[in-house]
Amino acid sequence: MDLSSISDDLAEINGQITDIFRALSNGFQKLEKIKDVNRQSRQLEELTDKMRECKRLIKEFDREVKDIEGRNDPETNKMLSEKKQSMVKELNSYVALKKQHQTNLENNKRVDLFDGPNEGFAEDNVLLASSMTNQQLMDSGNRMMDETDQAIERSKQVVHETINVGTETAAVLKAQTEQMSRIVNELDSIHFSIKKASQLVREIGRQVATDKCIMAMLFLIVVGVIAIIIVKLVNPNNKDIRDIPGLAPPAMARRLLSNPR
């Protein structure tokens, strides 16, 4: 059915969408022949812009269909609905194909870091959206969902391992902090003990010096007494030591000498 007989706006929008689908098909065919990674990336950006524009036009087509739905017979409305669903399906096929190319492009960029790019997409990439069946689209979508789930699981595992490493690191840091605290306390105790020992050494030194002075004085006194005793024994008539207690001659002897009979 010619859409221009229903609505000129619908016919114009349908023509624009058809042109975009043709450009997308040619663009993906061109992308298959490009080997340079940077050029592939630019080509994908251009195709992505075209798909955004196509999505906008499909929404505009849907709004126009709803506006004239009351004026059309059920058969025409059914045909327009199927036309819109066909547009959505074809656009989704290009979106899926774009995601496949994007994944393959990212793998090619990481080829130097890993063993090589992921295999399995080369055969899929050759399929054009216009020739892909519903089953192929569903398989492609399921495969992409599986890959996404696997990537999420890997991310969860990395996060889990990171948390474990962080926990172990925190425990080690805590143990080291406690050990450093004990070392500081022990150093403070050692410093206090050294200071106390220094004070005791000074006190003992002063005490020893005092004891030496006392001993020296006692030694001098003993030597003086011994010297006096020796002098008295040697010269008992020495008057200089006569009056020293214990060394003077007895009183009877003195009377005998002073009063003889």
TrEMBL record:
GO terms for molecular function: SNAP receptor activity; SNARE binding. The chain crosses the membrane at residues 214-234. Keywords: Coiled coil, Membrane, Protein transport, Transmembrane, Transmembrane helix, Transport. The keyword Ligase does not apply. PROSITE patterns: T_SNARE. InterPro entries: NPSN/SNAP25-like_N_SNARE, T_SNARE_dom. One of its GO terms (cellular component) is SNARE complex. Residues 142-204 form the T-SNARE coiled-coil homology domain. It comes from the Eukaryota. It is found in: Membrane. It is a single-pass type IV membrane protein. Residues 37-71 form a coiled coil. SUPFAM superfamilies: SNARE fusion complex. One of its GO terms (biological process) is vesicle fusion. Belongs to the novel plant SNARE family. This is t-SNARE coiled-coil homology domain-containing protein.
